[in-house]
């Protein structure tokens, strides 16, 4: 499954699914976000089908970004069965992402 891009209007339905959803809040001008993108892509390619990866551009989707109090990016929020369980700011190594998802 490819990385999906959410908008304010589609975000809720994209995370209200069974299983784990990894949501990455980012912006095109953010250097660390650009550094994190290939890590996230590799993580998504290696993850099984029960894990969904969703990206939210904070500039284009201020409602969702505000709802989750995103003040710094990149920010990663882990959802399980539609509920946010974990939030981390900054670049995460792929191994850390895998461990976070496995622990949910």
TrEMBL record:
Matching SUPFAM superfamilies: Thioredoxin-like
Family matches, as InterPro entries: Thioredoxin, Thioredoxin-like_sf, Thioredoxin_CS, Thioredoxin_domain
Transport as UniProt keyword: yes
A cellular component term, taken from the record's GO annotations: cytosol
Family the UniProt entry places it in: Belongs to the thioredoxin family.
Keywords: Disulfide bond, Electron transport, Redox-active center, Transport
GO molecular function, one term: protein-disulfide reductase activity
PROSITE patterns: THIOREDOXIN_1, THIOREDOXIN_2
Record carries keyword Transport: yes
Gene3D superfamilies: Glutaredoxin
Name of this protein: Thioredoxin
Gene encoding the protein: trxA
Domain Thioredoxin: start-end pairs: 1-104
Protein's GO biological process: cell redox homeostasis
CDD domains recorded: TRX_family
Disulfide bond annotation, renumbered to this chain: 30-33
């Amino acid at each position: 499954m490819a990385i999906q891009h959410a908008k304010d209007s589609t975000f809720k339905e994209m995370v209200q699914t069974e299983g784990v959803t990894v949501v990455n809040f980012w912006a095109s001008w953010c250097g660390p976000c650009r550094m994190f993108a290939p890590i996230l892509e590799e993580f998504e390619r290696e993850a099984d089908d029960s894990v969904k990866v969703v990206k939210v551009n904070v500039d284009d989707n201020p409602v969702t970004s505000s709802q989750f109090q995103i003040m710094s990016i990149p920010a990663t929020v882990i959802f399980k069965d539609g509920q946010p369980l974990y939030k981390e700011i900054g670049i995460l190594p792929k191994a850390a992402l895998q461990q976070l998802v496995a622990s949910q």
